[in-house]
Specification:
alpha+beta; four-stranded antiparallel β-sheet; 49% helix
Length: 150
């Protein structure tokens, strides 16, 4: 009987010393988990911004195909309603996720203005990743839309 007590006693002592193990394991896993979560968030924002500049190029091309009968040639970052570039830049400035920064998109457009020819609008945006954990790489997102003059 004394032998049984002696064998159980070391196990009880060992079990009592496991109290902080879960906290240590969590502290080791937390950085990996945070990198994974912020990476998923960052990638989702990148995909959203790509969809926004695709829609901006399409809106600019549609405006150029419907509202102009003269040759189109524009580029820049200006906003307004006077040409396809300004229409595309308006769309990006209103919809991009920038976390307080500027929606530094640039648009360019070309077209002859005659019926049956095309209007081409290209929108470029420099996407900056969020946080230092994920990285600080800058990705150039570009989208081009082509539509026929009506």
């Amino acid at each position: 009987m004394d032998e049984e007590v002696d064998m159980k006693k070391p196990m009880i002592c060992f079990k009592q010393n496991e109290d902080g193990v879960a906290a240590v394991e969590f502290a080791l896993i937390l950085p990996v988990l945070l990198v994974l979560v912020f990476g998923i968030i960052n990638y989702g924002i990148l995909l959203y911004d790509q969809a926004v500049i695709t829609n901006a190029a399409r809106e600019g091309a549609r405006w150029g195909a419907i509202n102009t009968s003269a040759a189109i040639s524009c580029s820049g970052t200006a906003t307004g309603t006077g040409n396809p570039c300004q229409i595309a830049n308006n769309y990006t400035h209103a919809n991009l996720i920038t976390f307080g920064g500027n929606a530094n998109s640039s648009a360019s457009a070309t077209g002859t203005g005659t019926s049956g020819t095309t209007v081409t609008v290209t929108v470029t945006y420099q996407f900056s990743e969020i946080g230092w954990i994920v990285g600080s790489a800058v990705n150039n997102l570009t989208s081009t839309a082509v539509m026929y003059h009506e």
